[in-house]
Specification:
Radius of gyration: 19 Å
Number of strands: 12
Number of helices: 11
CATH topology: Rossmann fold
CATH class: Alpha Beta
Amino acid sequence: MPPLSEIASMVAGQIFTTVPVPAADFSGKTIIVTGANSGLGLEACKHLVRLNVFHLILACRDLDKAAVAKEQILASLPPDHPNTTTISIHHLDLSSFSSVTAFATDCITTLPRLDALIANAGIEVKHFSLAEGYEQTLTVNVLSTFLLGLLLLLPKLQQTGEEHNTETYFSVVGSAIQIFAPYNQLSQPNLFAALSDESKADMLNRYYLSKLLCTLCVQAVARRTQHLNHVIINCVSPGFCDTGLYSHFSPPLYTRVLLRVIGSSAEEGSRCLVWGVLGGRGSHGGFMSEGVVKEGGKWMGSEEGVKVRERVWREVVGVLEGVRPGVGEGLGK
């Protein structure tokens, strides 16, 4: 169990903080949102279109659902609001490394610029299954997310920042419930192989662990990209929201009760995603909750947490180098 102070802080933020509706102008900017066809991703896209994003890319596994989402996004605009946004739909299946590399290659070769990647897509499942040789939660939420981020980071985000003298973002959607992750599971050698052993897999806590891994990886990448003056990498918690996350299973009674009592709507949570790509240099490597940079948990800043972070990142890079040799080049040690 995490310290009671961390639990109290998370609950207090959920109950007493109202994240303001984002106000900015994204005119001229191109933004990718993964998992954009429902929940947080869909609602974030509605905000981005309202804020005049020039080119919005819906990166989704199900193209039919993405097409419906596109119509919902357009319909969400006020009648007197001019539609200045081009909305494109692209196939992206994070359970497939080849799909990730194909999508990234297409973006690199066809997009004149890329201002932000909002890595929102993720899954929570309670049954064990493999994807690309690893437990599917790890593949989708962690490995493919950072494969996509690294493939786009240097060739596109940094290039856009330099050419247009602007801040660009790789913003990963995490979760404050990472404080409940079983840290001791990260001490295993050959971590991703060990976590992908069905006979030992703790699926009850796997989602929590995947979100902790995301935050650790964001910190590791951010530390290695301090020399990239234009790119900002952060992790964003949307809070406890009623979204489509539980489409794969029925959540326990206490979760349903908490959602009803203190849960936010998907629209409210999506505000945090948009604030993530407005966080500024001060959010680089940071964990954002309720729209501002906060501490993601004391363990991550501890001596043990830092050691685990570096070891985890070396393992992630090892996996990704096997998928796309050289993917980690250009990052500091």
